[in-house]
Amino acid sequence: MNTDSNHPRHSKDSPAFVPLPGSDRGPEPGPAATPGLRAPAPDDQEIEISIYLRRRHPVPEQHLPGGPPDGDPGTGHGADPADIELATRTLSALGARIIHADPQTRCLRVGGTTGTLAAVFGTRLEILQGKAPAPRRHRTGGLSVPAELDGIITAVLGLDNRPAARPRFHFSPAATQSASYTPLDLARIYDFPAGTDGNGSVIAIIELGGGYGMANLQAYFSSLGILVPKVTSIGVDGASNVPGADPQGADGEVLLDIEVAGALAPKAEIKVYFAPNTDAGFIDAVARAAHDSPAPAAISISWGQAEDQWTEQARTQMDEAFVDATLLGATVTAAAGDNGSADNVPDGRNHADFPASSPHALACGGTSLLADPRTGKVSSETVWNDSTHSATGGGVSGAFDVPAWQGHLSVATGTAPAAALDGRGIPDVAAVADPRTGYRVRIDGSDMVIGGTSAVAPLWAALLARLAGASGHGGGLLQPVLYAAAPAGTTGAGFRDVIAGNNGTYLATAGWDACTGLGVPIGTALAARFRGSVAAISAPGQDAP
Description:
Number of helices: 11
């Protein structure tokens, strides 16, 4: 029985329902284009979705960049209890079931049958067969919400459960590798400050598949001569740590993230949030991590997708989750992509990767590095670009405006003179990502070398955790401080500029560029900046989410 028989879709112009802005969704590329692979979803399948509500009080931009919270984290910018009560009453009357309501994250977890929830939100659900490991739900077009909740509901996520993102790690055949480094080598090369180890801080890592086993971690950290850090797995929306179960090889992502972060910040607590690879799962995991206690110093994200493959409502809600993290003192580090300026979209245009393109994430690009691991001396560091399918992401967002702290910048391409940014530019920072000069890690019992901007996000998260542990506070949104010290065409304090190479369309230049951002870290110099910028990155007296 399909959703058209028992639960007819309500009329979009019915006065009882109004369109949900930003919810329009196109067909999934690939199998969804083949009619024979789509069938109406049965009415009676029980599912859960996530509904996000507006903030009780908006966050004025002057409250950012955040930093250590000085106020009650349970008040201020969460959901209004009256909105929660109205949404609960209205949706329950329409047959939905409220499983959980979280005022801090502004999320209602809602259950019901596919037929009921499709009818409530004005859509038709199909089951899509294809190359995926299992059939999945699919929708196209926009959603609508009950008129009583117009402006109160800001996002309805999870009706369509297509994959939201891909992991950003890359292998390279052993024959092509010219160098490789342990995380401890990179701590020397990037001059991580001595006497810091992340003690007292938390690193949150977001994973959308795969898992890890403790035997693998014990063997890896023992090989480096360090103790295994404290690692905890946290399930979100029914997902869990299940090593070996993901046919896409997501264990490689999970272990890469933990091993890089854990080796570079061995005394930090590492919390790994496992969520389904859907827009709802991804955002719910970030929101959960941002509001966890104690608050993380950094949230590391090594998964992404071209930003125009996201719905506007999902991009906006993820960005709002990053705002929450920032207000609570966390810095979000996000991989900028591994497929050059096109970001693996075969339309001949440039695409920025999301969530790195959020102005509230520290976007992490990639380099190719030749250095002496014993002394840390660098002989060459250029933009990572092996091919269109193995190169750092970077570019100009088509979804987010130019942040104030990037307003003085221009971007250089190989086809035209440098021009002022007309959208958020990514990345912000960089480190080695080329799998030919990659990271020595251990994946499911095998030692190997991996690259990708996947590794850069946990590297920067570990550096920030070390700085937070030494200073006693997280940094929140760091970009206003970092860019203020880097006028156009100059290298900011705390960075070594990378000025050679391209990622397809965009060129490396002196100062910020859309390949490696401000450059690669000089850890000791950044530590001095971090200690000296407490006033700049804190907003005393503000309410946290």
